[in-house]
Amino acid sequence: MKRYVPFMKRYVLFAAILSLLTLTAAAQTVALKSDGQDSAYVETIKGRAQKIVDALQLTDAEKALNVRNIIANRYFLLNDIHSKYDKNQQDARDAELYKHHFELQSALALYLTDEQIDAVKDGMTYGRLKRDYQAQCDMIPSLTDEERAQVLIWLKEAREYAMDAADSKGKHFWFDKYRGRTNNWLSARGYDLKKEREEWQKRMEKK
User: Fold this and answer.
1) Is 165 helix (H, G, I), strand (E, B) or coil?
2) Taking Cα atoms as reference points, which of 116, 153, 123 lies closest to residue 51?
3) pTM value?
């Protein structure tokens, strides 16, 4: 019991310090890391990031600015990484992308909920996850809960890869790639995708 009490005191103290550090970090203004970037590109990225932030409808102006700068800084970082490597250095590029991949979510977690972070990810990937998931469910209404869950899992994987792509073409590539994987999997489970697509088209025309 004597050992337990000091341990709990240390635990409470550690938790308090961690909470204080988190609050302090959240209170700091996130700087825009645009040094070395073309001025026109910086304005484009700021506008793109601001559009994503506006969709979150944040009421705290300071928080909104910090989130915008975090997103913009992410775009700047991706641009730097992709510009550094040529097509023969993809392994090195991918290694550096992976090294920095989780930084965005960690930075946003100081200001946003998990749901809001997902919204940021959707904004950075043209909303493909929600559109593709809805389209898959509409095309095959008979999908089981298990199948729908697997479709969503793969779309989330696609979104993670797409977030690190160099441009819109690269982002769409990953969703198209995972759509192919999903279709192959569903075909193997007995779905006639051609027939399902034709029936879906008929239903849409009726509407």
Assistant:
1) coil
2) 123
3) 0.84
